Amino acid sequence: MLPRITNLDCPQREDAHAVAATKAVLGIGEFELFRLAHRWFLGSEADEKALERVFMAFLFGGAAPMWVRQYCRAVRDAAAEDALDPRRFGLERLPRRITPPGPLYLAIMWSAGLAICIAFSLTG
Fold it and tell me: Fewer beta carbons under 10 A from the terminal one: N or C of the chain?
C-alpha cells in the first residue's frame, strides 16, 4: 500500500491558518489584516496596488509575507497572554462579540418556521 501524501506541513497552509485565526480574533477581513500588518511592521501605509498583488498571491496558494506572519504571531501571543490591546495592532477597538443564539431561541424559530410551512401547505 502506498503512503498517503498530505500537504499538512506546507508553509502556505500554516500561513492560511495563522491569517484565519488572526482575522477572527481581531474581527476584520483578510485584506484589512494585510493592510494593518504592513503599517504595524513597516511603519507606513502600503501602496494599494502593491498590497493587492501580495494579497492575491497569498489567496492563490502563496505564502504570506514575513510582515504578515510576524503580525499574526504577535496577535496570537498577545491573545494567549490575555493582553490583546487593539490599539497596539492598529485598531481602535475590538469588535463586540455577538453571542450565538441559545437552544430556546433556536427551538422557537424552528417551531415558527414549521408553523409557517404547515400553514402554506394547507392553503395551497
Answer: N
Cβ proximity of 76 and 15 under 8 Å? no
Single out the residue of 26, 69, 34 nearest to residue 53, CA to CA. Answer: 34
The CA-CA-CA angle for residues 26, 71, 36, to 5°, reads 65
Digit-coded pLDDT (tens) for 61-107: 878 999 999 999 999 999 999 888 888 998 887 655 555 667 777 77
Quickly count: other Cβ atoms within 10 Å of residue 13's Cβ: 14
Q: Which three cell numbers stand for residue 32?
A: 484589512
Q: Supply 65's cell numbers.
A: 509575507
The domain ranges of the chain are: 11-96
